[in-house]
Specification:
six-stranded mixed β-sheet, about 130 residues, alpha+beta, 6 strands
């Protein structure tokens, strides 16, 4: 798979996952979507589901936020591949759903950036049942 060289800086690539998770934790759909390109894909690999385009991604996050009482992510490790415009994160997700489900998961995300510094592709590996439907 070829990659296009973007104009990313290591600092910008490393900052994006944290600001993305901050928006998720605040249940801020507009803030989350500001990180994604209009034609982005978000795949929950462990659940074999892909959301394509800003509207599908927005719907998935809106549904997740409406089903959630609390959401908290903590990035534990990060690898930045500046030349390729890619970042991998290992994080914890602790949350409670309105149905009473308590989640304490160990997840990994893989972010690929477009030339404008937006997420072009996000792949999520989850340990446990997918709360993103």
């Amino acid at each position: 798979m070829s990659t296009t060289t973007g104009t990313w800086t290591r600092e910008a690539l490393a900052a994006a996952p944290q600001t993305y998770f901050d928006a998720v934790d605040a249940m801020d759909a507009d803030g989350v979507l500001a990180h994604f390109a209009d034609d982005a894909t978000l795949t929950v690999q462990t659940d074999h589901v892909t959301f394509t385009g800003a509207e599908e991604i927005r719907r998935m996050f809106t549904d997740f936020f409406e089903a959630s009482v609390t959401i908290r992510h903590e990035i534990r490790n990060m690898v930045v591949e500046e030349a390729a415009g890619k970042v991998a994160t290992e994080q914890g997700y602790i949350g409670e759903l309105k149905d009473g489900t308590q989640n304490d998961m160990h997840n990994c995300n893989f972010f690929t950036f477009d030339e404008d510094g937006k997420f072009k592709r996000v792949i999520i590996w989850m340990a446990g049942t997918n709360p993103l439907k």
